From TrEMBL:
The organism of origin for this protein: Pseudodesulfovibrio sediminis
Protein name: histidine kinase
Catalysed transformations (reactions): ATP + protein L-histidine = ADP + protein N-phospho-L-histidine
Enzyme Commission numbers on file: 2.7.13.3
Length: 214
């Protein structure tokens, strides 16, 4: 399918939203590291004045820095993988890995609504598709579901093989299937041959991809 200028604009807006979210996460990592480094500096000044230092407090500050470095490394790896999703128009992609990356990049949005976002059971499945368009669609699918959830809810996302294609599903444990307005999904739902269906018996809202991708 040929992309229109509007499609391109939506793609750029999606890339911008993810980039802004990642930059906020990295900024938060730096803030915590800066706070812990300041605490270590205070301990150093105390030592210079001959005051006793609690080793446990020093160890806690060092552990905090190491933990934030690991967190920052994970955030940067996710951003790097997201950036490489634009490398090829269509390729064979691991849908579980793609969903996991999308969930990781959307977690901050869920956190802002105080909703727990996680992965459910996901058997191995792959499909030839445009990775960037698929991530844009999955992100808008999750974002649309979050609109109708309340603080304290848990949103679970899964994927499984279906008739040569695949089915992504959203569920809210303990509640009915989440409501997702199709009008809130971005253009790739048409671009990558996806249809949305409500499976009330399973309590899921499903996004089904056909085996034949353009």
């Amino acid at each position: 399918m040929t992309q229109t200028p509007a499609d391109t604009r939506q793609g750029l807006q999606f890339f911008g939203r993810i980039s802004a979210s990642v930059s906020h996460e990295i900024k938060n990592v730096f803030a915590v590291i800066n706070e812990a480094a300041g605490l270590i500096e205070d301990f150093t000044l105390m030592a210079e004045r001959g005051m006793p230092i609690d080793p446990e407090r020093l160890k806690k500050a060092a552990n905090s820095i190491q933990g934030q470095i690991r967190r920052g490394d994970g955030i940067v790896k996710n951003m790097n993988a997201f950036a490489h999703s634009t490398d090829e128009d269509v390729r064979e992609i691991d849908l579980v890995d793609t969903l996991s990356l999308t969930v990781a990049l959307t977690t901050r949005l869920a956190d802002m609504k105080q909703v727990s976002l996680s992965m459910g059971e996901c058997p191995p499945v792959s499909l030839r598709a445009n990775a960037f368009d698929l991530m844009q669609l999955l992100h808008s699918f999750i974002a649309a579901a979050l609109e109708n959830l309340t603080a304290g809810d848990s949103l679970v996302m899964s994927v499984k093989p279906l008739e040569g294609g695949a089915s992504f599903s959203l569920s809210v444990p303990g509640k009915d299937a989440p409501v997702v307005l199709e009008t809130m999904l971005s253009f790739p739902s048409q671009a990558i041959c996806a249809n949305m269906e409500l499976n009330e018996s399973a309590g899921t809202c499903e996004l089904r991809l056909s085996a034949s991708q353009p």
